Amino acid sequence: MLQSKPQAAAVYTLSQAHTVKSVRPGDHYVICDAGGGTVDLITYRVKKIDPLELVESIPGAGEACGSIFLNRAFEAFLKDSLGRYYNGRRSEQLERCLEDMRRRFDVEIKQHFTGNRDARWNFWLPPELYGAQIDGTEENCLIITGRDVTHTFEPTIIRVLSIIRAQITTLFNRRGYRPRLAGIVMVSGFGQSSYLFKRVKDEFERLAEITQPPDAWASVTLGALSWGMSNQTVTARKLTRCYGQEAHLKYNPDCGYPSVRHPFTGERSHRAMQWFVVAGNEVSVDQPLESPLIPVSSLL
Question: Can you state the percent helix, strand and coil of the chain, rounding each to 5?
């Protein structure tokens, strides 16, 4: 049986002693699995604590707005800053400088930037660009400021905040009462970003506690291992898609569909979908879904 990344993260994060102390039955938690390529969300309701048992509250959601988009935005910034020196034939020294800039962006800026617009980073340029007319340079260094980094982060941060907001809105709108949203948990690599955490906290702290586990980057792997040893932590899921098959049904003139001949009996019929399950339905993880099928031979 396969397990989704947000589910693995939830299994590990909510089962840790420092978190479970504050967890109560009936609490809902939004797990924000912010990785390199995508940001995936699942909301769970705590059914039991000992042992921990979780049920999906609403169907999960996700979008391609992970940290790789920060790297692409930073690359666009370098291209815009260096202009023809970036676009033209690059020397080996310039390539090494660009690689060092990308590495430092990954290691120093992407995870640890807090939103301080007055921060600045100096990136040495190769000797061939000493004295070149490049905006934003001082003493043979390309200067990247906190304002530049904020501008680089902003489109991706806005998309992440948008899907979290949509998940919370769906949770509040789909139940007959206002559920108790106890927390939003930030996990995976991008989930460790100080600036992303700050923006999520600024936006949603009035609704729930925002947490960022110290081992957020490893929560998916650790949760998968934990679930593999005992896969009953999450006992029910909300389907995100409908599943069914096209069928030939006895023709009904009021159905609105054109009549066709049944491929086996030749009788007048119409084609329609027969749904086995519908998006939003809650299904048990260990209960197979069955639908009767009629053998073709019985129709001949």
Answer: 40, 25, 35
